Batch of 4 targets.
Target 1
Amino acid sequence: KGIRGLVVRVGGWCQGIVKVKGEVSVERWKYAEKKEKGSGGVRVENDVEEVAGETDLGDWQRVIRLGPGALPCSLTFTPAKMKEGNVVKAGDTKWTVIEKHEW
């Protein structure tokens, strides 16, 4: 299909890159701790998208996004849903979870 991509989450950072028909898109997210429990959902403020997990004590903030492609970075914020072989969707593109390592 001419689509290649990768999303990697290590600790409090997640980044991804996808190339669709020669067009490249990238995203980077960071985890910012808060004093109060996150309420869940997505909030956009000052062009920074935040995703708060229901059990997290902080929020994920998108630091940068370049290009028009959709990446499934925010799906890594709930690792229990990310299992090898699962197919997830970001925009119009389906992604297959190839590897997942935890320690």
Target 2
Amino acid sequence: MDFFYQINLAAFVLVNASMVYRQYRQDKRAELSEKIQDFDAENDTADEGGSTSRSSTVVSASSAKQFTNIFFPVYVLVWGADWLQGPFIYVLYKDEKKLPEEIVARLFTTGFLAGAVSALFVGSLADRFGRKNACMAYCAITSLSCLSVLSNNISVLFAGRAMGGLGTTLMYTVFEAWMVTEYNQRGLERTSLKLSSIFGRMITLSSVVAVLAGLVGQVFVSWTKTNCAPFVASICCLAPASLIIGRKWSENFGDSGSAPKEKKDSLKLLLGVDKQVLTLGLTSCCFEGSMYLFIFFWSPALKSSHLLAHQHSALPFGIIFASFMGAMMLGSMLFTKILTDKRWMTCRELLQTVVVLASGSLLFTIFFRSEWITFWLFCLFELCVGMYFPAMGYQKGKVVGDGERAHIYGLLRIPFNIFVVVALSLTKEGDAYRETIFMTCSGLLLVVGAVVGIFLHD
């Protein structure tokens, strides 16, 4: 079966490479067209005796380039550190450290519980003391979490998972909050660099890094004969990321001393009275909760299908994970193609379609136990993940203001963390419970699809 997974990974690489090349050529044509338009505008302004337009154009283009040059390298390093850990954390606890399934579930639960609790305050602290500082804190906390796996002491492992949960909350809130606020403060909406394209590029880069991380992690494990190696490699990514943040990033904060009306509007958002924010919270809870449960259950699900086919060889988890990330990368590029290039549907319609497709991909794994069908359904789910995150990021960017962006983003993560904690706290050995989880997630995603269609505005 190793050959089957290698063929699928090669197919994803070829399709994604083709789409990246086409996108590159399209971007070059758009850049050339913009330069021609700017040149014409400058000539028109010069004829009228002015030079302000030319100066503004140059400054805007330079600011956009500087912004991408300082943000995307950090983004790649941070997500590279995270993806290096992903494929190996379950097998590290279960197979290498020989921990029972219940203990593994409790370790995962500890991480999500820490994420839920920290979501109550990390966003507001980041808004108050600075998102740049919060990003650097993430690098330090996650490095300590990675070091914890070198120990066999159960208390150290639980402490490491708690730090990992805190780090995950920071990763999903403060980096995006810093990016959107910095984008707005620089006035980059006046340039060709659109916010929706940034979100699409973020997920594409994340997917590329994830594929490479899966393969590199597999090589490290093969060389060192331990699943701890990718966690040590993660620290080597976080150190330069922290250095770039400290030297290159400017600090931005949330609003302080807001007017009473602004406070009232913020409270309205926090209490979920705003239907759009409530819809985004429900969508985040069900989709991202399902995604994290999928992260926990995909390995045992494939192992079960593998055994049903009377195969007793070890599964190539690094290659499988790289294939999943290839599917996610394809989804992110489809998002850009559908929403930005072709405009086949609105972002709301795309988000609704994605959650319904994800629902079907989880449901059908219950009825089709073949290993290769299960794998392809999981790839479909990851493709949906690739479209979901830029769509959700774009929607949140429109609905939530800069003043308390990190705080709101953090609060939106509380429901899904609680959802995952409850599901994992009830974890049992065997296929029956896993199928119940997938069926429940599928039903919830169908409900979310209906709610998005009714309450979320374009």
Target 3
Amino acid sequence: MLGREKKSGSPVSSLEREPQYGNNFYDPDVPRADSEYDELNVQCPPHTTQRKLVAKIDLRVIPVLSILYLLAFLDRTNIANASIYKLREDLDLKTTQYNTALTIFFVPYIAFEIPSNILLKKLKPHVWLSGCMFLFGVVTICQGLVKNYSGLLATRFFLGVAESGMFPGSFYLIGMWYKRSEAQRRYSFFFGSTSLAGAFGGLLASAIGKMSGMRGYNGWRWIFILEGTLTAVVAILFFFIIPSFPEDANWLTTEEREYVKARLYKDQGRSAAERKISFRDVINVFKDYKIIVGGFMYFGLIVPAYGYAFFAPGIIQTYGYSPIQTQLHSVPPWAASFVFAMIVAYFSDKLKHRFAFTLIPICLAIAGFGILITVHTNHHLEYAALFFVTMGVYSAMPVIVCWFTMNLGGHHRRAVGTAWQIGFGNIGGIIATYSFLPQDKPKFFKTGYSICLAFICLSAASCVVYAVSILMQNRQRDRSPRDLGLTEYEKTEKGDMSPDYRYLF
């Protein structure tokens, strides 16, 4: 299933693949008696093994990016925890003003997704990501100091500006390090940081809430101030440790860098990392209808994902819990979603399959919302349904993004395609912020649950369309002659549109 496989037996020659890597002393295509070959028939450096090298990459790439996004998601959604501690009363928020404050975040967040990934490639990941992280930490602190509704709107807007590059940039960077068959567990662990942020945020809020009254500040202000300070401090440290792309990784030896590039080429094709992304590249990406479908796959799940993230404390409070009990009861569903997402990711990678592992969690989420829409007198069952919702939604989302991202060949298509999927998908965040309104509380939020259910079904339908599309294209390419007279440069420019490329189903 993997793209660019040849008949087993002999490694791809460097003449077929690309010119020699400069004058480096190591070439993964020159046989050595003391080296092993991986499953793609690419020769490992003699001093290590594929397993050891991937573990080295894991330790350097995944934990840093996961912590980065955990803090980003925490600063984005801690307003839900803050709302339990008199935020609405102190700022005198009327009717839907709280919802509008949530919405304003997504306007710049969506608009700057694609430009952000282009800047990431231009400025290097450690500069761009750590800089954005420091900025949204400072903005979060300012959010705790606002005096009125206008101040809240301003800080939420600039929070969206600063956070716009975090998620697509991190996903893009991870995708440039791993083969498609081994990426899902890494993506799910990274994406699981959202679940950990939800759990961590609930625990922090239950503790910070006890600081209410200190220095004349209510608990909601301390949530923003302390969590923003933590983010800004960590950002300074991360400037020195956020990894770069494989081509620039000075923490790998020359041999290791060449091996990483060789195995990624065998799996995904040339990356064309050396060429800048032009406006024409962006236009060419959108000529492929699968790009549009990929946006709807993610868009459909963003509505329930943010619906839960922003309104879960308010929903749980309707079950009769005190503010601190509400924060504590918000933790278990998030924790369960992280565990379930890792189980789904493990089997998805093991079986080298994505499609079924998008639909199974989606069905679980549908069951959860079905319970919430119909059951209103059994709080234990309603609380259990929240587990179904979080486990389903937050397990399907990383599979969908990984599936789509890793099927995009080359730096250009992947940078633009990933940013598009995340940017367009986050329009669903605007819908989510107006799905659970104060006037619907006496009606058990049935309107919000119904909206979430409808968009989950949209995501499922889009996954089916995408799966059928790549299956048909794989079969069409299998029937067509491979040698169409294209040069290596032309194949590189085409990325996954090259006739040699095969999509992972």
Target 4
Amino acid sequence: MSSTELNIIAPLESPLPPVPEGDVLTDSQWTTFLAIADTFIPAIQVSSSHPRDNLSVQASAYADAVDKIRHSLPPDAAPDAVQTYLAEKPSALPGFRKLIQRQFGQYARKDAVKGIRVILSALDTRPGCLLLTGYTTAFHLQPVHIRQEILQQWSQSYLPPLRQLAKLLPPLCISTYAKASASINPILGFPRAPVHGKPGKGFDYGFLQLPPGDDQEIIDTDVVIVGSGCGGGVCAKNLAEAGHRLLVTDRGYHFSAKHLPMSTADAAIHLFHNGGIDVSDDNSVSLIAGQSWGGGGTINWSASLQTQALVRQEWADEGLPFFTSSEFQTCLDRVCQRMGVSTKHIEHNDNNRFILDGARKLGYDAKEVPQNTGGNKHYCGYCTCGCGAAEKQGPVVSWLPDAANAGAKFMEGFEVDKIVFDTSRGNKIATGVEGTWTSRDEMGGVSGTNRTKRK
């Protein structure tokens, strides 16, 4: 086997925990929901009429689209890759429904799912459709172009629930489709295994294990750090090297470099908080956070920005003058130095090059975002699904191994329920944490049901 073949060996699969039992939607609600998803991502076909299930376009427009997409395909793309992609729609993908089932059953707020179910049911009745769409025909029986008009009107509706759905459903359906689709990665030029770089080994972690039992387990330590992300990792290194007995805990689990990068569908469950989708109550703000060993440092795009002066000043104005001191700036510089943060080794993709070139031509001030790649060129495009090369200098590669070498202990799968306080001279002092530890399954993964739980 050649070195090139070795470099593109696919990562090991990481089986997912079981999908929550029970159907989150009724059959008729699923029909309407899938019709909504097919409206956002319709199958495209050549036709002069308006078929109900697909979006029709003229032959010339279809040919132009195929030629444009084919022009940007990688050389090894299948001859019919574009046609397969254009003919695909969410309702035809078994994985799409399964991912939505998990999202609604495990991660979404119960009140939000209840509201969605009410609207989906209404869209299957004549009175409900008249109120919500202006038509008496059930939503799923409308042709695609009419459904598109209806969904566009929802963003301006006088009914708040419809305006919220107009914000929530497009990113939910599109991101879920991208995770379930088998045709989109060849179109984007992202095969399952990265073609840039080579697999790395990573640090060999050892995690505390607890035997089965009903009694509460007590672990004695000087310092416990809850969360193994960027902040926790830096603190762990410094405190361990200062001689403190240290325990770092995280509710997530460690996935070694041989399991990375994951597919986007698996990464959303294993590496991201709340299945990869966190939104505010009014759906106006979306958040992305890590929930695996290494936290956000495992899934970020290597971007390493120092805290802006305006933010530091805001903190100082709130009574924290340290953040505008030269000592804090020295701390930031030391962090960046440890991770090899720089812009010297960046190789931009086409999108970034277009943005930088356009900004220069327009006279805009544009700068490259520094990356924590240890002073090395790192160009793979998969960083948000975990770094299989073990080159991105996040907590898992840098800070936590430093802490381990200084004697720190680690515990994965530990969800903290509360902080325990004592009172001394009228002041509350944190003395520990309480929570629940869940082991891996008998195969060393997290997909099995035979797992030990201890308080």
